Amino acid sequence: MILYCAVGYRSALAADMIQRIGDSNIWFLAVGWAAWQEAGAPIETAIF
Q1: 14 membership: H or E segment, kind and range
Q2: Are residues 11 and 33 in contact, defined by beta-carbon separation less than 8 angstroms?
Q3: Domain extent listing, the chain
Q4: Which of 44, 38, 40 is nearest to 2 (CA)?
Q5: In which element (H, E) is residue 12 found?
Q6: What is the distance between the alpha carbons of residues 31 and 5, in angstroms, rounded to a whole number?
Q7: Per residue in 3-42, pLDDT tens?
Q8: Alpha-carbon distance 19 to 7, whole Å?
Q9: pTM, whole model, 2 decimals?
């Protein structure tokens, strides 16, 4: 599971909570979504 929020703070908190209940396959975007976009990092979108 990959978590993200605007600046990275809330996603880090959520990742910690999820790991505490036993799921260890958690990743979060530490720099936040805004910094990811500003850096020109790749973005994929899909509709499921």
Answers
A1: helix 9-20
A2: no
A3: 2-38
A4: 44
A5: helix 9-20
A6: 9
A7: 989 888 999 999 999 999 998 898 888 888 889 899 999 8
A8: 20
A9: 0.70
Q: Are 12 and 30 in contact (CB under 8 A)?
A: yes
Q: Is 15 helix (H, G, I), strand (E, B) or coil?
A: helix
Structural Rg of the chain based on CA atoms: 12
Q: What is the pLDDT of residue 17?
A: 95
For residues 43, 14, 5, 7, the Cα torsion angle rounded to the nearest 10 degrees is -120
41 neighbors 15 (Cβ within 8 angstroms):
no
Distances (CA, A) of 1 to 25, 27, 31, 40: 6, 6, 17, 22
The continuous run of DSSP H or E covering 27 comes out as strand 27-28
Question: What's the one-letter identity of residue 11?
Answer: S
